[in-house]
Amino acid sequence: MSLSGNLETVAFPDILQLLATGKKTGILECRTKTRQKEVAFMGGNIVYASSVNSSEDLLGQMLLKRGRISKSDLERAITLHKQTGRQLGTTLIDMNLFEKEEIAECLKLQIEEIVYNLFSWREGDFIFHEGNEPKNAPFTIELSTMNVIMEGTRRIDEWIEIQKVVPDDDIILRMAVSPKVNRDEVTISLDEFKLLSLIDGERTVSELIKLSSMGEFVTCRSMYRLVLNNLVDVVGRKQGETAEMEDEEEIVLSIIFNLYSSSFYKIRSLISEVVGDHNATFSAFVAQYRSGLLSFFPGVDPDSDLQPSFERFIKSVRALPLSTRYYTLVAGLEQTLTEQLVFVYRMLGQGIYRDATVAVKREISEPLAMRRELVKKYGLEDGFYGSIHRAEKIVKLVRG
How many separate domains does the chain show? Predict the structure, then answer.
């Protein structure tokens, strides 16, 4: 079946309906300049979905945000997943951190969030690869495509009403001291109760969405109902917060960009000095990182014309959801640094590995001295050294 086109002319729900009624098996790929998502079908039903060039929808990220796993346990699981080649969901089960049913539940939520997000796309290209199967699915979850169409369409319609009531991102909310209700008892949903527990009179709407484990749509729907029922009050607007946050974010992203670009360049340069530029072993190894945000860190000379544009890097980072973009970026870079250092040891031995470690450690001295407060606030130093320490632990295990 040849099915391709643009979402400006063919709506996403119409594509789903065509695949469902035709009972098609394959992968629907949707992409814009900065995003790419894939939805897998089996006999017309949705069985898996993923974000190809971003980590925003990864299972581990969802578990972390929902408070179901600690960052340290997730890092251990990711390391093991990389070493063994087994899927992350399977690895988490093998580590006795989750039962299969729990992973299946979270995987179902992940798939739904990815697909429902596609309902809001108004541009982008799509193509259906008939007969293809998902490559990285821990296991599949069958969802009725027709039910997804109905729910997705309902969400879009509901979003219109929600956005009319939910305050601006920089508005601070608090629980109403004297709720204006016409009855002695008020019934609220579990989702609304969860959101109320986060409202403290200091957090803005955007901060509440970021902190919530329920996802943006469910959080905003709960906020909508709380506002309509007069259970929350507006404290005021956080003056100048948006501009300050954006300036701060750009500074932090600049530090990250320069720090890791230089570190990866030091590693590549050291290997080239030892084995020569003609040896393609390391280049073949780092090729796996040339996707998503990691494609902006190719390990070339930061002062050369080959260095990717910082402006394009900023634009790509800000295309990700505000609530997950920082973790998405930093987690990928920290893991990449660990894996490259371990590769140096396996390829060239203890002495060159030690030289590489010393070389990358020097790269953090400048940002530490210049913007100490931001480095500390965002945990850049801890994350950077954490990558090196993880590499050391792996090397010790390999050495025995």
Answer: 3
Please tell me whether the overall predicted TM-score, pTM, comes out greater than 0.70 for this model. Answer: no
Is residue 37 a contact partner of residue 58, using CB atoms and an 8 Å limit? no
**C-alpha to C-alpha distance for 36 and 32, rounded to whole angstroms:** 6
Question: Which of 129, 154, 179 is the C-terminal boundary of a domain?
Answer: 154
> 48 - beta bridge partners?
40
Domain end residue (candidates: 122, 154, 186): 154
Q: Residue 21 and residue 144: Cα distance in Å, rounded?
A: 11
| Domain around 321 | 241-399
Taking CB atoms within 8 Å and a gap of at least 24, the contacts of 222-226 are 222/189, 222/191, 222/192, 222/194, 222/195, 223/166, 223/173, 223/195, 224/161, 224/162, 224/165, 224/166, 225/188, 225/189, 225/192, 226/188, 226/192, 226/195, 226/196
Using one digit for the tens of pLDDT, what is the confidence trace for 323-351? 788 888 999 999 999 999 999 999 999 99
